[in-house]
Design goal:
The structure is a homodimer of 341-residue chains. The first copy, chain A, is of the alpha+beta class. Chain A is built from eight helices and 14 strands.
Chain lengths: 341, 341
């Protein structure tokens, strides 16, 4: 057993955190033959006839299934829509496969289905195909939903985590970490931390506006879910072989999230958001991008949080400290908060 | 509680059997807003730009994960490839989302991943995007895999369960029920029933040959998985508003499957296959279709099992009995064999 709770040869909760262990597990088993996750982008690009498609999938196992600001159904729609959006793709169809534990109240299933339907309306997409499996009591934890999505990539747009270049600005569309913290509060009944709601929302509308106005100057889009900003930015640095230098302003978290993180000893940069967008944009288009984002209801809190510089052979993310020095912001490792999506 | 073990208001194993209860559950909750499964076809048709696509998803929760003739990985690839094939679609890309129970041996995960990769090679398709979630011990039963698939529908082909017409012949590409029985034998350690192997196989090669040769005379394709032939034929009868009259020859099951069914009191017509094809074809093209199917390694055991006649307002499937009378073959209801896929 190593220091971060990994037992050799078996899968641990840490492997599901979305950080370094998840990447290693996927690369080890699915890297060669099946290319699952190999590119590390949120979705795969697929060219079929004249159609430029994006294709993505995610399983949702969040617990509890209902939390302030959302539920597993809303999350399952938004998560997949946002993965498509981060490829510059308008979502055109979703699939939904549910694994239900015997004994789940039908009333709960109905609420989740309604929530999925409402989120689909919001995102302008439909679930067109599905599957239902039921397993014995004790063989699943209530309800798991896997959504996949097909989207059409906007003309002239080709986004990937490898697109960041020295001179780019790094923006985020609003304060981060609300989703991860909202799930945690709901799970542990931390009543004193009320007022923290998940940011869970479909991002295609915001992305579409940004691409309409700033187009090719947008180099990378990411939604910082599992592993939070720390994971997303490390993935971008790694894929683009650049250094990302953060100078995080206080507006990166709301007061409530900041206070809760201090109280609980959590780093907000590793907490998941499900309705925020990381934008890496040509430095020259930074101000224009910020004003487009801020003009959209979902981007009002947009701020610049850093810039991209030459990696000099060492891809990494660094963070300015209050002492005027820099520290490395690592890819999160280990358990983080399990089952937040 | 009703006679078939359904408790009002909660989801039961019977809801996952793929029979009437599954259809009712899906229609009740996912019917209106989200159209999951609403059309009852194996996949959804999707037109994007000039591309005629099919899109499908299935979760695989089979237990045990390894059984004679296959495993959960092979099944997860074949199941989705076959759903696309039944829409006349060449599979072009798969996604794979895995939910892993903490504690699963990595060696087992590796075997499953290799098996998926081999099945992909066999089917001529690749997993292009994926997701990995890990849940706590006791929150899932080892490993669940959800695959989705995108396929390109063959030019000039438009298949649906609603395509059957009076005068059509009903064919099946080989003996049925091997998969369901193989899983059951593995699950219960019925050593005396050795020699029964799953028929699990990707069907696109067989379907492609059939469509090349018989083309538009093919009216419906189905792979009889959960609920077996009984479920598939009832779905076709219902969607096409016709009567399907079966005159099932003894070749419909292998000797081993027939014997085991007699011993265990199972109806082979409700047992799942995962590598068999039901073909509804214009009566005039029946002989040609049979010879094309039989010339392919996966269709050598092809036989005619019935015909389509006017429904007269009552869509149903009937079966000739040894007494020369007819009995109704109902849509299977209730538990059947849970978790065979």
């Amino acid at each position: 057993m190593t220091s971060c709770g990994v037992v050799d040869g078996v899968v641990t909760l840490g492997h599901g955190g979305g950080g370094r262990l998840t990447h290693e597990l996927v690369a080890r088993h699915f890297g060669a033959g099946a290319a699952a996750g190999a590119r590390l982008d949120d979705a795969a690009r697929l060219d079929v006839a004249d159609a430029r498609l994006a294709f993505t999938t995610d399983s949702f196992v969040v617990t509890p299934r209902f939390f302030p600001g959302g539920d597993i159904g809303r999350l399952a729609v938004c998560g997949t829509v946002n993965d498509l959006a981060c490829m510059g793709a308008r979502p055109v169809a979703l699939s939904a496969a549910v694994v239900i534990e015997e004994g789940l109240a039908e009333e709960e299933l109905a609420r989740v289905a309604q929530s999925m339907s409402a989120a689909c309306d919001e995102a302008g997409v439909r679930v067109v195909t599905g599957d239902t499996k039921v397993v014995e009591r004790g063989s699943a934890d209530g309800l798991f939903i896997t959504t996949s999505g097909v989207g059409v990539v906007r003309e002239g747009i080709e986004l990937s985590g490898s697109g960041a270049r020295a001179g780019d600005a790094v923006l985020v569309s609003g304060p981060v970490g609300q989703h991860g913290l909202a799930v945690m509060v709901a799970r542990h009944g931390l009543a004193s931390l009320h007022g923290i709601e998940s940011d869970c929302a479909p991002l295609w509308g915001l992305v579409e506006r940004l691409l309409e106005e700033v187009g090719g100057a947008v180099h990378v889009l990411r939604d910082p879910t599992r592993g939070g900003l720390a994971a997303s930015l490390n993935e971008i640095a790694e894929q683009s072989q650049v250094r990302v230098v953060l100078d995080v302003p206080s507006g990166i978290v709301t007061g409530a999230v900041g206070g809760a993180c201090e109280l609980l000893g959590l780093d907000p940069l590793t907490l998941a958001s499900e309705g925020r967008l990381v934008v890496v944009v040509d430095g020259a288009a930074c101000e224009q991008a910020l004003s487009v984002l801020r003009a959209h209801p979902q981007g009002r809190g947009s701020i610049q949080i850093g810039q991209v510089v030459d990696g000099g052979g060492a891809a990494r993310v660094t963070l300015a400290t209050v002492l005027g020095t820099e520290r490395v912001l690592d890819m999160p490792t280990g358990e983080l908060l399990p089952r937040i999506c």
